[in-house]
Amino acid sequence: MVIRPLSPFALTTEQFYLLQYFESSITPQCVLPGSENLYCKVLLRMCIAAEPGPVLHSILAVSANQLRLLGRNEYRIATWRSYSKALAGLSYKVQQCFDHGAEVCSEGWEDVLAASILLCFFEISFACSDTWLAHARCARTILQAVGSVRGMSVEKQELCKLAYSYFASHDVFARTASTLHYEPWRIIECPAYNASPINTLVGCSEELLGLISQTSDLADEKEGIEGAEEVSLASVGYRKTDFTGSADFARRRTAIERRLHSLSQIPLSGPNTDDIALIVETKRLAALIYLYGRFDCLLPHQAPIPHITRKLLSLLAHIESSTTVLLWPLFIVGTFGIQPEGDEDRKLVLKRLTAMQRVRQLAHVKKARRVIEAVWKARDLRAARDSRSWDLLREREGKISLT
After folding, report:
1. Would you give the distance in Å from CA 302 to the centre of its chain?
2. Assigned domain for 259 exists
3. What is the pTM for the complete model shown?
4. What is the dihedral of CA 97, 100, 105, 111, to 10 degrees?
5. pLDDT digit string (tens) for 90-103?
């Protein structure tokens, strides 16, 4: 079969406008300001370089849905028309890829991977229900079947880099908001995935993502042991009050803390370097708050959380960008760091969330805001005032995307 590049002359006026809108208005809000835009560099290039298929229709669905969210109801039909064509095309490509059992065919997996990213993007912006996990699982299967990126063309390496960065970061941050998670993605060391000291899609280094993931792993492991000990003690008539822990837990927790304190994330020189430096630092500070609140079970008024919270909020006050890469630090400081008496701090967090909503009206931003406000309301009640932050968060709202 000969693949014919998509000709701009084959597009309708509406389709051409939606492609331009994806490039100029949507994707710049999803990366660090002024940085390399892999969504355009990889996905849009794939779309233009091939015949119409699931990648094209996924991009059209993303753009039409974004316009619909902003009140352009004339794009409602285009949203669902493109979405249904994208799903049908993806289903066909998946069947092609796995016709021969578990091994991916020599061609076609690239379209599946790219469309999975875009449809996940669509699901999160539309309603942020747990349906986005299906596309994450599909992408994981493809990446596992493809195996090593070594020997691939540069274009395929860039696609794998984008897919891994996109889905791994979604899982790492989502695990900080809910206990509802599937097998976590692991941050891997591979030159193809670490071409820059700062991941422009996420707004921090790959190492910081790894440290956040390790914190969640360690906390999950600790909670599992706590639960088993409580069941064991209850069976003989005793009630457990404190986690006894082990020297290994203490060693691993201290290693994460020390690395978070010493971690230096220096963006490459260029435009918006100052803003990027502030954004990546908010992520590091949020990771510290998460460690103290999630693993150590410290409350917002217990040291050192108040000091770190003040530093993080002061940085947010000086960042002009409304990019969604700021959503995670806003969520963490809002739920783990702000005290019930911090009305001005709450106003700052709400102001930044409102700025994000004003630009794009994304469902996952609205969902994160609902959770933050629910935690604040719970803390305002005397009965929940001393409740652990994680206890107020767990099991809420399903799997939230914070990327």
Report:
1. 28
2. no
3. 0.87
4. 0
5. 888 888 777 655 55
